[in-house]
Every structure is written in structure tokens, then in C-alpha cells.
């Protein structure tokens, strides 16, 4: 998955860089800050989805955990999955999850309803949204508020087939330190 | 004793309302002329692109007046040490965030400004802590801005202060009182006083270039300030806030309601102004003289101050409830405040209480915002007042937890003398607030009257910075909690960075905008923060002289309303506010990140008197 991200990131960055310097004010190619495109895996060709991020309600506008993590409400809309999940090794339900980039933690957002919707809350800096086919729709994930490095939930997180995946916009944050400009290279635009 | 309101006693600078922000066209074409491989080192950049040469050119010609307040009176003010850097010093880089290559020889365009430069700091009067002043209707307060000496954590700085106090005097006044403030400017910059959030008479708003001329050094202006709404307010200059406010020219006003039960019972009150100062071992990092620096993100400090002190402390008894009045006077920093895990009841914001009190675990406050919150300290011990955020390290492309300890609250084992635990855990519905808002509910579903887009135009920064900014276009946090790349931010001035408020319907920008309302109008305004601009950033938008409700954030209705004057619009968000155009005059609306204001992010609106 990281390799996929790298490839996609490189392509997008190339597109951005192609706009060239000095073209300030142009509409730069950039992933939406409030939605995640859910791409199908090879097990769910033809499926698609989007996870829309909204700020969790807060009197301050910005909803933060006490340690400063942004709290998002995640609203999924998926389509194109087989009506009967049993095609996936006897699964009984489609379930939406969030996980951190190293996959060490998972949080069950909720089952995917018949209309393709699901929702939940995420408060990680960078995260991945998944839809899986599960034999039960009630597996507990990491408790809300758990942070990377926390002890995983006693029960396993997803165990079924991963069907859709997408990364949070924050995952696209660039690393200046690894950029060619920072290593004496020639960007050659 | 009542004083007669007067106009400006001296000739100050005035900006013609509606004047367009001057863009630094003298730098156009510079970037495209650079060969690609010239980006590798700053030396090459300077040699090829002539960044330093551009600075020289700028100083030899009259640069555009980029200040919203006009800086004609600054021509003779103190500069930093002369030299190739114009007296500028690069801000210290945070640990783990190395300086970017190509930055070594860069510095902001134009000369630096250092307060009190050439003055023996030891000869300045020492600043003293703020003193409350109770004012009655008709009273007059003499308020002067002057240079003072502050010693903070062993380092001595020349700073500004009202009446020699940090913060300025805490004014306590009753609702509907009118006071007079005779302001005398003893600093070397033109200045004024803006009464932030107060729905006062237009000509006393302190908006230089719009409602008054700047008060020149040595000049005087008498403000007549009427306080129609109970709440928490603050005052600060409206000229070069990036300098004057940052150096200490601010203070609070607590306007008390005649209702003795306006707030819940509390054992103590504490008025806290949050601020941050950017320093290194040589002192305060100099400012831009002709144009604000740090204009991409605003100036984030590395020395946190609460009421001007780095180690705020409060001692209370076990079980005490403390009512905190909180103001963010920082140039750019938003905070996520914790009281060591003590429970917090959110009571009020800028101009009013909320419809419903609610418990929160932390308080998010942005520049110019105010919150009133009650905190109960139920167990003995030490509770840290902290700012806890997920900061960004742009070099690594990663977040990291940042915890800034702003102070401590020591809770003794002795029990409180008056236990308000029951009242604290009871969440009141403020029917008076709801009743007031009820008069406006018929407007909640009206069409949007005006739509603003918040965006930026950047022209003429050194190629190395532009290159990294172009790379850094894939993601921006909704709100910047820290400065993840201070070296690049520092170099950007109001000559290269133009922050924009754009009227979507007309395409007009900034001070070309002058919406017209009639007193009594209720206008729905949608403010959208462009996520696709060169460098989007959250903006705390402030409307002068009026009040507004935040109806919806990203289409989600706000379930708990209160009257505000400042609202943070995160990157990519659209918020609908309902403006109560109740106060006649031509007013300003702007971003309250001081450097963004200086970089053009301000507009006008006029409320004509009701016929």
C-alpha cells in the first residue's frame, strides 16, 4: 500500500511541479481536503466509494481532542459491491474501518448499510479508510481516542477481505527533507 | 469626569478608503528568469536572481504602501543594525526542523525594525503587571503607549506597554456605560486603539485609514467608548499590529451585566491574555520596517506568555470554581488549552453567553477570539495550563505532539470556602440569549447575501522558497498550529504575499469591497476558505462594530449559538454567518492574523443609518 501511495504521490507531484514556479494563483492540483476517494482492490473491481470528512461538532468550530488531534466525522458512500457479501468467503456484512498508516491500529467505523452508507469518527493525524467483507459486522476495533502505539483491542480488527481503500488528505503532506531540491538535485523543469 | 471627544491632535497617515493594495510589480518576471539549476544554493540564487539586488531596488524607489494603516509616519523610525541583512535575523529553527538549503543568505526585503533601537534598554522604565481599573459611566482613563523594559526568563527586552503595564490596564465597566479614554502615543510609530468587539460609535473604532487618522508619535486622541453588551473585549492598536500588538499593546475590558446571575457562582475570576513572542539569544526577532514579515503564516512565537509572564500561576482551594476570561492576543497562533484535565464548562464567547452551557475537555481559541469558561479544581495538586497540539514538521512531512506549558494552577488540600459543585455541574440554558436570537431566526434560511472567498496571491519570493511551496501543495492542515518552516515564512513580506478577501459576486478584492447595508439589515454571509490557493491557511475573520451568529459550518447547522465578532475559517471550509448590521458607519472586516492583515486581507462594509 505504501508503494501504491508513493506511486500516486509521485504522479500527482509531477503534475503539480509541471505548473512551474511563478504561476502563483493558478489552480494547483491537490487532493480535496474534505474527502477521500475509495479505490477498489483487485477483489472488488467495479466498486467505488468516497469518504466525506466533516468537522465533528464543536462550539469552537475546530473540534480537537485534548492532545490536539482533529476530530472528523467520516461519512462513507460506496457502490458497486456485490449485493450478497457471501461471495467473499462466506462474509455476512460489509464493514467500514479506519486504520493508521502502519496498520497497527484499527477502528471500526460501522457496517455499510444497504444503501452503501456508513459513518464513524476518526481522530488520527493520518489514516486510511477501508471497507472489508466480514463474517460478522460487530467486531470491536480500537476504542475511540486510542493513539498509534496504544495497545490494540483484544479482538482482532478486520479479518475479512479488503475491498476498498483510501488515504486521508493529510497523508499527502510532502516531505521537504526528501525532495530533490533538498539533496542537491536538479528538478529539470 | 466626562471629557469632550475630540479628533486627532496631529497629522497622521491616512489610507484612502477603497485604495487597492499595491502589489510588488517590481519583482515580476524575476522568478521565470532563473535557470533551473540555480535553485541549489542561496549563493547561486542571489547571484543569478539578484534577491539582494531587488532589495536595493526596493529601497531606492518608493515601495508601495502595503500597510492597511499607512506608515508614512514611520519614515524616521529606528532600524536594526545596518548591513547586508538590513538588520534582520533569521528566527531560530525548532529542533528537528533544519533550515532549508538555499535559505542561508536570504532575508526579508527592506530594512528591519527593532523597538527602542539605539536606546539603552536599561534606561527604560521597568514594566509592571496589569492593574484592574473600575470605571463608571462618564469616567475618563488616560492611556499612553510607551517603551518599557521587560525581563523575561533572564533576558531583557525593550517592549511596548499601555501605562507601563503588561497587559494594559484591565478595564472593568458596567454594561451600557460610556467611558472616555485619552490616548497619548509615546512610541515611535503611529498608533491608535481599536476596541475589539465593542459596538461603539464608528469614529471611535480606531481603524486607521477608515475611521480616524493614525495618532502620530506625541499625538493624542480621545475615544468615547460605549459598551452596549456584557462580555469580554480587548483593545489593541490598529496600526502595524504585527509590531505594536506583538510587543505588548493590548488589554482586556470586562463588561459586567446588571444581572447578578449572569454567570454562575465562582470562587475566583482570572482574566488571561495569551500571547507568544519570537526571540533568540540576541532578543526579539526584528520586524519588517516598511512591510510586515512572516506574511505567509504569521509570526509564531517561541516564548509563551500569559498576562505577559512565562510562568503564569494561580493558587486555589480544593473544590474552587474559577471563571477564566480568555483572550488570544497572539499574532497568528491558535491554542488548544487544557487545564490539567480539570472539567471545563464553556459559558460565553465574544459578545454573549451561549444559548446552552456545555462541558468541554479543552478550549480551542484563535487570534482575537475570547471565551469565558468555568473550571472546577476538585482535587488537590498541580494542574498545568497547557497548549497541546499536533504540530507539523514540514521537513519530515510528519506531525508531532507539541505541549507548551503556559502556567500552573496549584490546588491546596484546604477545602473551598463556598462549594459551587452543584451549580458547576448544572448546565444552564440562557433564555435571555435564546430570546434575543429568536428575533433573528426568520433570517436563518434566507439566501446568501454575500459570499467571500479567502485566498492568496504570492509574487516575487525567492525561487528556492517558491519551489518548496509548489512542492508543498498536496496538503494543508485546516488550521496551522505551529510554524513548520519558519525560515521560509520569515522571508515573506507584505510586498510579496497578498492575502485576499474576494467578493465572489463582483470579483472585487479587499479594500475595493464596500458592501452597503441599512441599519437593521440582517445579512447572511458565506465565507469560503479556498483550499486550492498557493498556500491556504485558516483565517480568524473579524467584523468591526457589529455582531454575528455562526449559523452553519460546512453546511452543518450550529446547534448552540452565541454572538461573536471573530470566527476561525479553516482551510477548505465554508461557513455561513448572520450579520446583525445594527451599528452605522463604514467599518472594516479582516483576518486577525496580524501579518495577513498587513498583507492586504481586509475589506470594508458600510451600514447606513436607518431612515
Quickly list its features.
heterodimer, A: 189 residues, mainly beta, eight-stranded antiparallel sheet, B: 611 residues, Immunoglobulin-like, six-stranded mixed sheet, 37 strands, 38% strand, disordered N terminus
Structure description:
- The complex is a heterodimer of chains A (189) and B (611).
- Chain A is mainly beta and 189 residues long.
- Chain A has one domain (2-16, 33-180).
- Chain A is built from 1 helix and 8 strands.
- In chain A, a hairpin with a 7-residue loop joins β1 (35-40) and β2 (48-55).
- The radius of gyration of chain A is 18 Å and the shape is globular.
- Mean pLDDT of chain A is 78; it is low at 1-28.
- In chain B, 9% of the residues lie in helices and 38% in strands.
- In chain B, the strands form 9 sheets. Chain B has a 6-stranded mixed beta sheet with strand order 17-13-19-24-21-22. A 6-stranded mixed beta sheet of chain B has the order 28-27-30-35-32-33, with no helix packed on it.
- In chain B, a hairpin with a 4-residue loop joins β21 and β22.
- Classes of the chains: A mainly beta (189), B mainly beta (611).
- At the A-B interface, α1 of A face β22, β23, β25, β26 and β27 of B.
Summarize the structure.
Chain A has 189 residues and is mainly beta. Chain A contains 1 helix and 8 strands; from the N terminus they run H-E-E-E-E-E-E-E-E. Chain B is mainly beta and 611 residues long.
Amino acid at each position: 500500500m505504501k508503494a501504491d501511495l508513493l506511486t500516486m504521490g509521485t504522479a500527482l507531484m509531477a503534475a503539480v511541479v509541471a505548473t512551474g514556479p511563478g504561476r502563483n494563483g493558478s489552480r494547483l492540483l491537490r487532493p480535496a481536503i474534505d474527502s477521500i476517494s475509495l479505490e477498489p482492490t483487485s477483489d472488488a473491481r467495479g466498486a467505488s466509494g468516497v469518504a466525506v470528512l466533516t468537522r465533528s461538532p464543536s462550539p469552537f468550530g475546530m473540534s480537537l481532542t485534548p492532545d490536539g488531534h482533529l476530530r472528523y466525522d467520516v461519512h462513507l458512500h460506496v457502490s458497486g459491491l456485490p449485493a450478497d457479501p457471501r461471495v467473499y468467503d462466506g462474509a455476512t456484512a460489509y464493514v467500514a474501518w479506519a486504520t493508521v498508516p502502519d496498520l497497527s491500529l484499527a477502528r471500526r467505523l460501522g457496517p455499510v448499510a444497504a444503501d452503501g452508507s456508513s459513518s464513524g469518527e476518526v481522530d488520527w493525524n493520518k489514516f486510511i479508510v477501508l471497507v472489508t467483507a466480514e463474517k460478522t459486522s460487530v467486531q470491536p476495533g480500537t476504542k475511540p481516542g486510542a493513539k498509534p502505539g496504544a495497545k490494540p483491542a483484544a479482538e482482532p480488527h478486520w479479518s475479512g477481505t479488503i475491498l476498498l481503500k483510501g488515504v486521508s488528505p493529510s497523508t499527502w503532506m510532502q516531505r521537504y527533507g526528501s525532495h530533490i531540491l533538498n539533496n542537491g538535485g536538479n528538478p529539470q523543469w | 469626569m466626562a471629557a469632550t471627544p475630540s479628533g486627532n491632535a496631529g497629522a497622521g497617515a491616512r489610507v484612502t478608503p477603497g485604495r487597492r493594495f499595491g502589489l510588488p510589480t517590481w519583482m515580476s518576471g524575476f522568478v521565470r528568469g532563473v535557470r533551473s539549476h540555480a535553485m541549489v544554493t542561496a549563493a547561486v540564487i542571489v547571484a543569478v536572481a539578484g534577491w539582494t539586488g531587488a532589495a536595493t531596488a526596493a529601497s531606492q524607489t518608493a515601495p508601495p504602501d502595503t500597510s492597511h494603516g499607512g506608515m508614512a509616519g514611520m519614515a524616521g523610525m529606528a532600524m536594526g543594525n545596518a548591513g547586508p541583512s538590513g538588520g534582520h535575523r533569521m528566527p531560530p529553527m525548532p529542533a528537528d526542523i533544519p533550515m532549508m538549503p538555499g535559505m542561508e543568505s536570504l532575508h526579508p526585503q527592506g530594512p528591519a525594525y527593532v523597538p527602542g533601537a539605539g536606546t539603552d534598554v536599561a534606561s527604560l522604565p521597568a514594566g509592571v503587571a496589569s492593574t484592574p481599573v473600575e470605571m463608571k459611566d462618564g469616567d475618563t482613563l488616560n492611556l499612553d503607549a510607551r517603551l518599557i523594559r521587560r525581563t523575561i526568563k533572564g533576558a531583557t527586552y525593550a517592549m511596548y506597554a499601555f501605562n507601563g503595564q503588561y497587559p494594559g490596564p484591565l478595564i472593568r465597566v458596567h454594561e451600557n456605560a460610556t467611558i472616555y479614554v485619552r490616548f497619548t502615543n509615546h512610541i515611535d510609530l503611529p498608533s491608535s486603539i481599536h476596541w475589539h468587539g465593542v459596538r461603539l460609535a464608528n469614529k471611535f473604532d480606531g481603524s486607521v485609514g477608515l475611521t480616524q487618522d493614525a495618532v502620530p508619535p506625541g499625538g493624542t486622541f480621545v475615544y468615547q467608548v460605549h459598551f452596549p453588551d456584557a462580555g469580554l473585549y480587548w483593545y489593541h492598536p490598529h496600526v502595524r499590529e504585527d509590531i505594536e500588538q506583538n510587543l505588548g499593546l493590548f488589554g482586556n475590558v470586562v463588561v459586567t451585566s446588571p444581572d447578578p446571575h449572569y454567570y454562575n457562582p465562582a470562587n475566583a475570576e482570572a482574566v488571561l491574555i495569551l500571547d507568544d513572542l519570537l526571540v533568540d539569544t540576541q532578543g526579539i526577532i526584528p520586524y519588517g520596517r516598511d512591510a510586515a514579515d512572516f506574511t505567509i503564516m504569521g509570526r509564531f512565537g517561541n516564548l509563551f506568555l500569559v498576562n505577559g509572564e512565562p510562568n503564569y500561576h494561580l493558587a486555589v482551594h480544593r473544590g474552587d470554581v474559577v471563571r477564566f476570561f480568555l483572550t488570544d492576543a497572539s499574532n497568528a497562533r491558535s491554542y488548544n488549552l487544557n487545564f490539567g484535565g480539570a472539567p471545563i464548562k464553556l459559558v460565553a464567547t465574544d459578545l454573549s453567553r451561549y444559548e446552552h452551557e456545555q462541558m468541554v475537555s479543552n478550549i480551542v481559541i484563535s487570534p482575537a477570539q475570547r471565551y469565558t469558561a468555568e473550571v472546577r479544581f476538585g482535587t488537590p495538586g498541580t494542574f498545568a495550563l497547557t497548549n497541546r497540539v499536533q504540530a507539523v514538521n514540514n521537513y519530515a512531512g510528519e506531525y508531532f505532539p507539541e505541549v507548551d506549558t503556559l502556567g500552573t494552577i496549584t490546588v491546596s488540600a484546604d477545602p473551598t470556602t463556598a462549594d459551587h459543585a452543584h451549580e458547576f455541574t448544572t448546565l444552564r440554558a440562557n433564555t435571555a440569549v435564546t430570546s434575543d436570537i429568536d428575533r433573528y431566526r426568520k433570517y436563518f434560511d434566507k439566501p446568501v447575501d454575500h459570499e467571500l472567498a479567502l485566498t492568496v496571491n504570492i509574487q516575487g519570493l525567492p525561487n528556492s522558497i517558491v519551489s518548496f511551496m509548489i512542492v508543498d501543495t498536496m496538503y494543508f492542515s485546516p488550521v496551522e498550529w505551529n510554524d513548520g518552516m519558519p525560515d521560509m515564512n520569515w522571508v515573506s513580506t507584505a510586498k510579496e504575499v497578498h492575502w485576499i478577501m474576494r467578493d465572489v459576486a463582483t470579483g472585487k478584492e479587499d479594500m475595493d469591497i464596500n458592501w452597503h447595508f441599512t441599519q437593521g439589515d440582517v445579512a447572511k454571509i458565506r465565507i469560503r476558505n479556498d483550499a486550492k490557493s498557493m498556500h491556504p491557511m485558516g483565517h480568524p475573520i473579524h467584523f468591526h462594530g457589529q455582531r454575528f451568529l455562526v449559523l452553519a459550518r460546512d453546511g452543518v447547522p450550529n446547534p448552540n449559538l452565541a454572538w461573536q465578532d471573530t470566527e476561525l475559517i479553516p482551510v477548505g471550509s465554508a461557513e455561513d454567518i448572520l450579520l446583525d448590521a445594527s451599528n452605522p458607519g463604514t467599518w472594516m472586516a479582516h483576518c486577525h492574523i496580524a501579518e495577513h492583515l498587513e498583507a492586504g486581507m481586509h475589506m470594508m462594509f458600510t451600514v447606513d443609518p436607518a431612515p
